[in-house]
TrEMBL record, chain A:
N-terminal signal peptide: 1-21
GO biological-process terms attached to the record: peptide transport
CDD domains xref list: PBP2_NikA_DppA_OppA_like_2
Domain of life: Bacteria
Organism: Aminobacter carboxidus
Family note: Belongs to the bacterial solute-binding protein 5 family.
GO CC field: ATP-binding cassette (ABC) transporter complex; outer membrane-bounded periplasmic space
Domain Solute-binding protein family: 64-425
The entry's keywords: Signal, Transport
InterPro entries named among the record's database cross-references: Peptide/Ni-bd, SBP_5, SBP_5_dom
The name this protein goes by in its record: ABC transporter substrate-binding protein
Record's subcellular location: Periplasm
Primary localisation category: periplasm
From TrEMBL, chain B:
Listed InterPro entries: BPD_transp_1_N (IPR045621), MetI-like (IPR000515), MetI-like_sf (IPR035906)
Domain ABC transmembrane type-1: 94-307
Transmembrane segments: 12-30, 100-121, 133-164, 184-207, 242-270, 290-314
Protein localization: Cell membrane
Keywords: Cell membrane, Membrane, Transmembrane, Transmembrane helix, Transport
Record-given protein name: ABC transporter permease
This protein's GO CC annotations: plasma membrane
Top-level taxon of the source organism: Bacteria
Cell membrane is among the record's keywords: yes
GO biological process, alphabetically ordered: transmembrane transport
Membrane topology: Multi-pass membrane protein
Upper taxonomic lineage: Bacteria, Pseudomonadati, Pseudomonadota, Alphaproteobacteria, Hyphomicrobiales
Homology family: Belongs to the binding-protein-dependent transport system permease family.
Amino acid sequence: MLRKLTLAAIVAAGFSTPGLAETLKWGSSRDIYSLDPYSYGDSYTLSFLNHVYEGLVRYDANLEIEPALATSWETVSDTVWRFHLREGVKFHNGADFTADDVIASLTRVSDPVSPLRGNLPAYKGAKKVDDHTVDIELVGPYPLLLNDLTNIHVFDLTWLTDNKSLKPTDVGAKVEGYATYNANGTGAFKVESRVPDSKTVLVKNPGWWDASKSNIDRIEFTPITSAATRVAALLSGEINFTENAPSQDLPRLVAQPDLKVMERTDLRTIMVGFNRKPKLANGADNKFNDLRVRQAFAHALDSELVQKRIMRGKSRTAGAIIAPEIPGYVEALDSVLPFDPDLSKKLLAEAGASDLPFTLVCTNDAYVNEEELCQGLVNMLTRAGFKPQLDIAPAAAQTPKRAGGLADVYLIGWANEPMLDSYSILLQMIKTKTDKAGVFNWGGWTYPEIDKLIEQASTEMDRTKRLELQTKALQMAKDDLIMLPLHQQPMAWVMSNKIDGITQLADNKPRHWLTHFAQ
Amino acid sequence: MLVFTISRIANAIMVMLAVAMLAFVIFRLAGDPVELMVNEQMTQEDRDNIRERLGLNDGTATQFVRFVTNAARGDFGISYRNGQDVLTLIGERFPATLELVLVATLISLVVGLPLGVLTAIKRGRWYTESLQFLSIIGVSLPSFVVGILLILVFSVVLGIAPSFGRGEVIQIGWWSTGLLTPSGRAALILPAVALSLYQITLIMRLVRAEMLEVLRSDFVKFARARGIPRWRIYFRHALRNCLMPVVTMTAMNVGSLIAFALITETVFQWPGMGMLFIQAVTFLDIPVMAAYLCIISFIFVALNTLVDITYAVIDPRLRNAR
């Protein structure tokens, strides 16, 4: 008893100091690629670096856009936007944040060698009005500039110039970039050290312009690729946060008294795409061009079974190709065709496609429980009168097949990131494939009417009207079953129950400037 | 002798070229790195530009020749994934792997040798028979299972060793070592034990077989007849005569441990070359994969060539053999 009391006294003495140093030990399933946000087109790296670098605007807790480094903005003309910058903001090295920094950053990200220039498609140029005002000129009227700017991180011009990093790192030129190892942003945390694949340490930036909701002084970010090791590290307390807990271990983690689990579904919608060229890769006539065959495919799938068994009750069955959080969504888009294998057989017979042989192309390293999902699909389709064959391999190996139009039927997931608008999927997946659009239109379809709606939406500055156009396009895509949506994926964060404040949004991005430890 | 050495080295170069050529054919089939490098919003036009600039549209032969000429000048390019110089990247990871492999080898010798002697001299006892049986399990358990079991017992239940990482490291020139700090040594134990398990059983069985052979020989019987103490016969006279094959095998196996440490490294998040390679494969980071394969094949070929030449020095009969 006495010993317990003494211990309690020591603990109390040690913990009673205000502003106690809290360390977030963040174990992730993968490392970030670089400290340079413009080095590799990777959403995960960008979201991590958002702790260090910031954009002109950012998403709030409802995924709505709010001011960050810019305090307000207006459109000067159809193609010119004016941004008023926040005053008194300092970079981690003490330099002042001004209009020149914004221009240098925009120039850097839109450089021809930047792998991230797709994130700022309408950008033409930027002009300094005064030290805290910038005009951004676009190639045409474009409504989604603010969404794009959430992910364009701002660098310090002098720092870039001094370190010869005005241009992004170009792997083709075989020259390393200074910004790959070093960082200097305006964000809530500074980089203290980084050893790739081992540990990246961030420390609190006491001079951050925003009122910090977090009491974290230090973030130790460690990639732990093996899921079993990650779980072990959580159980032993070597890490106290992960945003990627394996679903089969969740019951065990929930049972731990000092851990808590936060689950929800994220924005990524998993769907099936069909080849729509006149002939399949093997030379046979393509029966998937017949709407009845695609409907038969949809009626063959028991979405309840998929949700309960394969996804362990954690996914959200989807009828729309976008998640409810994505602008453009209306409930009418979300109806699911009923499970009816007899109807499938009938439809197939009508279309003269009974016992239709085809290959289902799946990946095994991109989505949640993918292997079981694809196996399940194959079983259900076989029962409904199809003759599917499964081709499953890592994404690196499957992408050329899918992008080359060689896949008969394939699985793809789309989160509409970083734009968080249904324009993203309409432009990149539904629209006819050209140099500027339809990169993920792997089936090679063309719907001139839908294309026209998308083009109208691309220049419609009125948000309500634009979303109406997009919803209409989505409805037409649904009616013709261009893509067959399956579900939104589950996500699970596990953390120490000492964390009493944390923001988990559908985009599955940790925002630790909002994370709080109980005192 | 000179002719022999030159022909051995020429052989080694041919083997390395063949490995590099095979590697390039495989990369060709593995997929398209550009699709993994760019953001989803990138247009087709920009994707094609990147592919062109990286020289991925050229034929396999052109890419191969370009790689070999650059590699001969020590230029392996920079990683598609990290944007870091490939040689620096591998140089940073090499100390981690080498320390792990050397410590694992040391453990396997320290444990494997006495166990081998014991199972030979106490043949037929229940404990040596169970050791023999356990060693079969040691050989047949996959290393990731061993790794996870060790983590479960020593990190989660007992909490005495870290489950991942390398702990604190100290930089000596370009070499980073974890051997000089307590946390570095603690982090090294579990992966080194996991990696050494297979080696231990191998050495134990090899020593046992050799010992049984030697113990039957005349000089041991003579030594016994002279009344030399038993431990002296076993460890001084008999064991010495078993060591040649053990030393050769251990030296040769250092190469394969370096190459196969990648599973252990992945389980323990050990920042070595193996993990670098696994990640390069997932992201089709061709410069890293190519350099890694070349370096690993160089280590293998160099070790083999060295052993060949040493044997030739020892045994003149081998010099003229083809």
